[in-house]
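Q: Given only this backbone (415 positions), what sequence would you predict?
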């Protein structure tokens, strides 16, 4: 029985010297940027959404029963009265119409703010509808301070179990199908989110330069994700260099078009809240969002392009660099064609409700795309796509130069 064992082409020592000569300074710059732009302790302070009044507490509770007739405004607003048990306290509250329409039922877990009606804070009085400080009694409250409809404020459903189960199923399938490489990819994903949560977002909140913060965070994430998931090799290093080049292009173009298009307005409730943060610019948030949105597709296409070049070089050892580049770019064009509309569909899916409102209005659809939040999505889609289109030939060229710097090793063995 005969078989042929094929070893993929190896990069020469000279090619490794050139790649490391480019990679090491980029790694050093990323670490320096991480240290220099690291947010102050004040920027990492978290605000509590339940800290509306003295005695307020953010917690979860279990719905025991629902009585639509007990809500005085049910016919006009669609609210409902809920009996709730938080473990430490129990009582009733009014659920908003959107919760009733969602299908809230007995046994559901919900997030609530527990209000202490014994307090005299005016904010608590406004929320609970009472005026304990002025001698008034909140609707449904009693002198014993037992929880009533005025003691709880509905926030949202508690989705810890449902989302946790979905995440577990996803992780299990990734590990089952992709094995150890899938596990390393999941670890890299967790570390990537750690970089965003503990560095990028607080640094932007701290007033650091958004473009530098975004590029630094993206570079650090790519160093972690690519090498952790795909291992340290010439092929991975080639893909990393192409990805970093695409990130740089995306960041620069994102900053230019965000400024040129004046995308620093307040278009949503979230941006309205953040607009009051000292040193924070809405344009900064747009740039960072563009960079993060482009990471996934850049990583995907550069890794695939590098792998394609290596496979082509292994299957055609007699081919020249020009021939391999031409063949690989035929694959790259397919990547560009498919990924460009993938990006567009991803943005459309994320903004579907907004697009529905735009389609239902009398304003021309294309004109609406140039306004407010839609303009941000358009700029993000186009800038990310430009970075992708440029990164593919750049990665292919680097890969061809590296793969043809060494020699292919083929051996036949007979057991």
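A: Predicted residues:
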């Amino acid at each position: 029985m005969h078989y042929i064992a094929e070893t993929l082409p190896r990069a020469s020592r000279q090619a490794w010297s050139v790649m490391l000569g480019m990679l090491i300074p980029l790694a050093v710059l990323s670490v320096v940027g991480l240290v220099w732009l690291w947010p102050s302790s004040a920027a990492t302070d978290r605000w509590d959404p339940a800290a509306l009044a003295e005695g307020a507490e953010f917690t979860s509770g279990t719905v025991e029963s629902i009585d639509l007739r007990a809500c005085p405004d049910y016919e006009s607003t669609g609210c409902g009265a809920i009996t709730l048990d938080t473990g430490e306290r129990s009582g009733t509250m009014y659920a908003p119409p959107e919760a009733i329409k969602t299908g809230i039922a007995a046994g559901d877990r919900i997030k609530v703010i527990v209000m202490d009606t014994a307090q005299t804070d005016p904010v608590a009085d406004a929320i609970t509808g009472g005026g304990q400080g002025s001698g008034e009694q909140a609707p449904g409250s009693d002198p014993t301070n037992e929880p009533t409809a005025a003691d709880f404020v509905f926030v949202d459903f508690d989705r810890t179990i449902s989302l946790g189960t979905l995440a577990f199923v996803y992780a299990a399938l990734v590990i089952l199908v992709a094995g150890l490489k899938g596990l390393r990819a999941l670890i890299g994903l967790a570390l990537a989110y750690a970089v965003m949560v503990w560095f990028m977002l607080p640094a932007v909140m701290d007033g650091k330069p958004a473009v530098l913060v975004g590029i630094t965070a993206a570079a650090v994430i790519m160093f972690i994700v690519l090498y952790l998931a795909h291992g340290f090799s010439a092929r991975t290093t080639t893909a990393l260099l192409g990805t970093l080049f695409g990130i740089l292009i995306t960041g620069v173009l994102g900053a230019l078009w965000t400024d040129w298009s004046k995308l620093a307005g307040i278009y949503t409730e979230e941006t309205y809240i953040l607009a009051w943060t000292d040193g924070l610019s809405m344009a900064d948030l747009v740039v960072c969002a563009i960079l993060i949105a482009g990471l996934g597709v850049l990583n995907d296409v550069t890794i695939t392009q590098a792998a394609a070049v290596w496979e082509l070089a292994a299957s055609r050892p007699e081919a020249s660099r020009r021939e391999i580049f031409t063949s690989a770019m035929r694959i790259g064009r397919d990547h560009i064609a498919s990924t460009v509309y993938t990006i567009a569909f991803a943005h459309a899916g994320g903004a579907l409700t907004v697009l529905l409102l735009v389609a239902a209005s009398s304003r021309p659809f294309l004109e609406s795309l140039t306004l407010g939040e839609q303009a941000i999505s358009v700029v993000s889609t186009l800038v990310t796509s430009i970075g992708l289109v440029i990164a593919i030939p750049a990665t292919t060229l680097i890969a061809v130069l590296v793969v043809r710097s060494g020699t292919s090793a083929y051996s036949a063995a007979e057991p």
